[in-house]
Amino acid sequence: MTYQEIESKVEAFMAAQGSAMPVIVAYGLMNAGKSFLMNMLTEHVQQEYFKTNDLRETVENKRCVSRQCVYLDTPGLDANDEDDAHAQSGAHEGDIVMFVHQPQGELEKVEVAFLRKLGASLGEHASSNIVVVLSKIEKETPEKIAQIEARIGQQCAEVLGFTPPVFRVSGKLYQDGILRQKDTMVAASGIDALLAHVQQAVADVRAVRAEKSRLAIDAMLKDVEQAQRALRRDRNSVRATVASRFGAFNEQIKQLRSFLDDSAASFKRLQG
Amino acid sequence: MPLPWLIGAAVIGIGAAIAAAVSDDDKPSNNSDSSSDATEERSRREAAERAHKKREREQKIAGAHVLFRQQGEQYGASLRDALDGLANVIGDEFSPQLKQQGFVVRENIEHNTMFFVAELREAFPGMPDDTEAIVGNLRFYANIFHREFALMPASELSESILEAKEIASQLEELENTRRQLLGLKQQLAMTV
């Protein structure tokens, strides 16, 4: 590998390191509760960071950078083609994908289609990186939620080839619990369990990335050291060429020195 | 370009001339006459002989200076030829003079070689053996002959120096990259 190739490779690697925080992306249908969920996960309980509204509020991907990772909110999948494109770009960026579904029924066609695309784009990482989140569980009975969860599990198995972990959460319950300092409500909200899962996933992603980076660095170090050896060989060769070109000059200078010394010694005797 | 053995022969020439002057000067007188007239005559002859020898010796010293200068100039011509294709040489004066204390160079003009020397050092940093020998010889040459050097553009040497400087620059960059990678590796080990 040449000097230029190595420098370009290392430069690209270093640039990528700067933006190497794991990204958690949420997507689902419009008003599935993505933004509200993201506010809870990012501790924006009282003052929302991701805008929520009954109307479609998120029109483009919005990110919140935390200490360990980046949270990315996307527009609804079903809003229009442009929003769908925005959501797609979020999926490409995401290391961990939270697919948020309001459990009024099974996954809709548009959701299934999107999951299919997502599974294909994540490839071998899909099974460890996709999480299904059933939001707003306070609006349905536990029995109905259980039925929907089972059905979604089947749909995912058909579309993705596996059943991802499913978390039942209530952002509203979590918010009330925090504001009223009711631990039971917080625990029942399922947010902490989801957060723990996400944090573990983030740690896994970071560990995998760090290992990949270490391997990449070791490979680049080998390339660098090999290139250094080759350049030193080239320099020695140039140096030897230059030294040989000065060979006659050096030899004559040696004789000139002898001549001067001998002459001076003889002259000294003559004077004495 | 004179061959080295020719230069060696010339060195013997100057050495022999000066040595001959010394030996002639040391010849003792053979006169052993002890009469008064003879003593006076001997003193007169000896004085004449001393005067003759003194003149002869002064002539030989002057001759030795001339021979020394001529031979030095021959060295200068040979050395100029030896640098052909390597450097542009300006000036052509053989400056050393023979004195009682040895040969003396009139002044130090090391600054005239600085650019040339800097080029060599930049091209071969941290490689003292060959480069320093060349640098030392160039400085000596500049002082003895009052010469200045300039790297000959588009010469074999200037191309070699350019190539070596490019290699030196790349080696430095690669070393920086290596350190940067080692630092990042260490950072990764600490943070994960």
Care to describe what's here?
The complex is a heterodimer of chains A (272) and B (192). Chain A is α/β, with parallel strands linked by helices. Chain A has a single domain (3-213), classed as P-loop containing nucleotide triphosphate hydrolases (Rossmann fold). Chain A is 62% helix and 10% strand. Chain A is built from ten helices and six strands. In chain A, helix 1 (3-18) packs antiparallel against helix 9, helix 4 (109-122) crosses helix 6 (142-160) and helix 7 runs antiparallel to helix 8 (183-189). The longest helix of chain A has 55 residues, at 191-245. The N and C termini of chain A lie far apart (70 Å). Chain B contains five helices and four strands; from the N terminus they run ααβββααβα. Chain B has 192 residues and is mostly helical. In chain B, a hairpin with a 2-residue loop joins strand 2 and strand 3. Chain B has two domains: 1-82; 86-192, no CATH class. Chain B has helices spanning 4-25, 36-82, 114-123, 128-145, 156-191, and strands at residues 87-90, 97-99, 102-104, 148-151. Chain B has a two-stranded antiparallel ribbon with strand order 1-4. Chains A and B meet through helix 1, helix 9 and helix 10 of A and helix 1, helix 2, helix 4 and helix 5 of B.
